[in-house]
Protein: Demethylmenaquinone methyltransferase
Amino acid sequence: MSVVPYKNDQTGKKSQVAQMFNSIAGKYDFLNHFLSAGIDIYWRKQAVKIMGQNQPTLLLDIATGTGDFAIEALSLNPQKIVGIDISEGMLAVGQEKIKKKSLTDKIELQLGDSENLAFADNTFDGTMAAFGVRNFENLHKGLSEMYRVLKPGGRIVVLEFSKPRSFPFKQVYNFYFKNILPVFGKIISKDQAAYTYLPESVQAFPDGQEFINILKQVGFKNTQWHSLTFGISSIYTGLK
Structure:
């Protein structure tokens, strides 16, 4: 049974995740930076550095949300970045942000399903996702799609929450994630389920070596795992 935001809702995870992000879209960026004390910005920069090893010209940002990862990846000077997401609300916020920054010629945001990508095989130099693959209804299918649309030799970079394992950081982190974060998330976003779902989905996610094993099963080679900030998040990468 996969973790879902709205436990009394009979619709599938994909539909519920879209509904959740539509609900919190207006507060998402603020909450991201506030609840992580801004360290999420550093995490994205580190992930983009790894993507830069391939000098990509065409990038696909999966579960792009409001476009922060795509905007950060412009530091690599690609010709274009395509971002897709299932939440119309998040994309609307992202499109407004990109318009204000005059980046519409570099970043194109589209409504799309990460597990059924509307792109031909071998299209992109790099596929990437920040805090998005955890929300896939079918993780293997979503990662397989990211592999399919990559050119041979292309790189995948996934930034995702993980579970600290060392004392005492593990205990402090778990207390914050389970008791403090949901309270502030509910107050600010007005959606209680969204920030209860967050720690539950992180707990259920196959992080670390488990995730590396899935990347290998999908077909990725030269897989690597980089732990960040005492294990709060991790960067995973591999080549097609």
Summary: The radius of gyration is 17 Å. Residues 24 and 191 are 7 Å apart (CA to CA).
